[in-house]
Amino acid sequence: MGIFERLGRVVKANVNDLIDKAEDPEKVLEQSIRDMSEDLIKMRQAVAQAIASQKRTEQQYQKNQVEANKWQQRAQLALGKGDEGLAREALVRKKSFADVAATLKAQLDSQSTQVDGLRRNLVTLESKISEAKTKKDMLKARFSAAKANQQLQNTISNINTSSATSAFERMEDKVLQMEAVSESAGELAGVGEESRWAALEGGADVDDELAAMKLQLSGGSEASAALPEGQPQDSHVASGESSSAVDDDLEELRRQLNS
Known about the structure:
Helix content is 93%, strand content 0%. By secondary structure, it is mostly helical. The protein folds into two domains: 154 residues; 48 residues. The longest helix is centred in the middle third of the chain and has 75 residues. InterPro entries: PspA_VIPP1. Keywords: Coiled coil. Belongs to the PspA/Vipp/IM30 family. It comes from Cyanobacterium stanieri (strain ATCC 29140 / PCC 7202).
């Protein structure tokens, strides 16, 4: 393989690649419809011209046919009058118009066949254009859906999943830490409040007990004051007397030992 052939293939491949990348399906479809519509316009013009030519040929054919029939009648008239020369001249004119009419008839048949073919092609082209328009709308919808899906997939693929996941994990840890701090602050606040209430309640119990003791003491002193004279007041008095007797016995023993 020569170097120029290889170079030509490389150039062609690069050009085709650029064309494929620059080719927009929607624009290509629109241009194809425009091209087909232009062909349809040209086809209709051709059919119209063919029909017009066919009509002119038919008119000429009918005119020459009428002239041929007219000179045929004149030849018969001249021959009937005995003027053979005039009849011959009329037949010559009749043959001339008849030959032209025959030529036009052949041309008219050919034009009729051509016009029929053009009309069939015109109908076929119109049907293809209608089908192409319908298919174009379907392909445009599919292309738009595929393009949107491709963009979505590209967006998803460009997302850094690990980074996003780690960010969510960090935020979750931060929220958990904030919740723990909030709960701890709430518990500490509750403990402080409970301790104040306990101190108040405890202080009330002590005050109540102290008041009860004072009441008992005051009640005892009043009771001892209310006792009659000569009656022992309470057990503390009796214990005082017995302690005094013991002391007297100890003092007596000390004197005996000294003597």
